[in-house]
Amino acid sequence: xxxxxxxxxxxxxxxxxxxTDRKNNFLISSxxxxxxxxxIIRVVxxxxxxxxxxxxxxxxxxxLKSAAQTQKQINLVKLHEQSKNNMEQEILNxxxxxxKQRKIIYQLEKERDRYINEASDLTQKVCSSCF
Length: 131
Hints:
Blueprint: H1 2-8, E1 10-13, E2 18-21, E3 27-29, H2 30-130
Antiparallel strand pairs: 1-2, 2-3
Helix pairs in contact: 1-2
């Protein structure tokens, strides 16, 4: 950028009616000066415009990348929430199944105790009738 700006900084030498750069490296006639200056200005403007476009495109590209990464994170969060809900439902199902099995065990224990008592009563009746 500085090399382009250095070319724009020209002045008219009043004694020779010619254009020189500040370091007097080259001389151009004053009627050609405006053509060269206009070309230089166009080049600088195009260069600035291209830099602006590239910068804008990079910002847009970064925004799109950020949006894609954000969407990935949102999808991961949804997946984790769904997994959490599935696991919570499985836990509830296991708790319900455990409760059902406890009821069945309780009923079986009651039935076992009843059969033990019946067997004991029958054994006593059989033993009392034998003696």
